Amino acid sequence: MKKGSIVTLEMEKFADRGKSLTKLDGYVVFVAGAVPGDTVKARVFKKRKKFAEATLLEVVTPSPLRTEAKCAYFLTCGGCKWQHVNYESQLEAKTQSVRDAFEHHGGFDSVQVENTLGTDNTYYYRNKMEFSFSSGRWLTPTEISSDEKFDTSFALGLHVPGNWAKVLDLSECHLQSELSAELVNAVRTLSLENGWKPWDTRRHVGYLRHLVIRQSTKMPEMMVNLVTSYVDTERMALFAEFLQAQFPQVTTLVNTINSTQAQTAFGEEAHVIFGSGVVHDKIGDCTFEIASNAFFQTNTVQAQVLYEVALEYAELKPTDLVYDLYCGAGTISCFIAPHVKQVVGVELINEAVKNARRNAKANGIENVTFVTGDMMRLFNAAFVKKHGRPDVLIVDPPRAGMHPKVVDQIRELAPDRFVYISCNPMTQARDLALLSDIYKIDKIQPVDLFPHTHHIESVARLKKK
Ligand code: SAH
Fold it and tell me: Distance from the CA of 114 to the center of ligand 1, in angstroms?
C-alpha cells in the first residue's frame, strides 16, 4: 500500500471522530465517511508505521447501517459526522465506544454498560449554536466543482475540522432550528449590505467575530449574542433595529467585545443592547436563567434524561448531604435538592457560581451552597471539615477528567454512594481505574445528548467494595 494508491476496503468498525476502520496488509486504515459493512474505494493520503488514512472515493456496496445524510455540508462541516449512519446504529456504536473505553483505557474486563438512551429529536436539538465570521471562506467540493464564482472573503457559518481560520458559509444547519438558520442567512445579508468586515485571524482586523444564538427549548425566548472586536454604537443600533423588525422571536440582544487574538466567543465585556440579557430554560421542575457567557447543557431534553439517571443512581435519601462537584450553573444541584437535606456545589467559574446561586433562589431552593474554586486546590480536608462529610458524591468533570489530587481526596472520603457523570468515557475509565480497589462499577448508563456526532455522556454508578 503506497501513498496515493487506490484501494478497495471492506470496512469493519467505527473508529474515533466518526471515521471507520479496517485492516489491510497489516495496516489499520481509517476512512472518514465510510460505515462498517461498506465496501469502498478509497485513496491513501497518509501512511504511518502502523496505520494509514484514506479518502473515500466511492461506496461500492453500501452498508445496511447507512441512511441518507440530511445536510448539504455533510462531510465538509465538522458538525455532524454521523448523519449517514442510521440512528439505531449510532446508539449501538456509542454503547460500544463506552465499553471499549472502560476495557482499553481503564483495564476493566467486564463492565455492565446499558444500552444508550437515545432521543426522538435527532435534529434541531441544540439550544445554543456558535457561528463564526471569517475572512477565509472554505468551499465544499460541490461548490468548487460548480461553474459559479465565489467571493471567499466573507463567511458566516461553522469551522471546518482542524482549521480555525476557515469557515464554511452555511445556508442550512439542522442542529438548532429553522429559525436559527434563517437568522444566520439574514445576518450575513445585512453584514454584506453594510460592508461590515469579518475578523481576519492573520491580520487581526475586522469587526464581526461570532454570532451566538441561544434558543430556549421550553420557553419562547431567544438570545442573539453578536461578538465583535470593538464597540460600534451606530452599527449595533442598526443591528438591534433589524432584529426587532425581522425577528420578533429574539427577546434579547447582547454585544460581547473580544479584541484579543483568541478565537472565542467569550469576551472582555458583554453589553446588553435590548431585553434582559438572559434566556430561561427548564429541566424538570427547575427554571434556569442563562446568561450569554454561562455554561448550560446544550440539549435541554436529553439533559433531563441524564439528570434523571444520575438521580436514580444516587438513591438519594431526605437525610443526605450531597456534594455536586464541577457543578456549572448548579443545574444538577437544583434538580436533586428537593430529594435531600443539603447539597454543596463546587465550580471553577465565578460567573457560573453566581448563576447557580440565582438559579437556586429563583426556584425557591434553600438547601444548596455553592463554592467557587479549583477542585484541585479547594477539595481537601479543610473543605470537608467546613461543609461536612458527604453521604453521596456526584461528579461531572470536563473532558480532561479529574485531577489525581481530586481522585485521592475521593479515596479519603469514600462515601457509599458515588455517581460519576462524564462527557469523555476515556478519562472516566482512567479515573475510575484509580479507585477500583475501593469502588466496584455497578453499571454504566450512556445517554445521547449529541445525535449525529460521536460524543456521548455516560453515568457510572459506583458501589463501595
Ligand atoms: N454539572 C454541570 C456542568 C458540567 S461541565 C451541568 O450539568 O451543567 C463541567 C464544569 O466543570 C464546567 O462548568 C467547568 O467550568 C467546571 N470545571 C472545570 N474545571 C474545574 C476545576 N478544576 N474545578 C472546578 N470546576 C471545574
Answer: 25
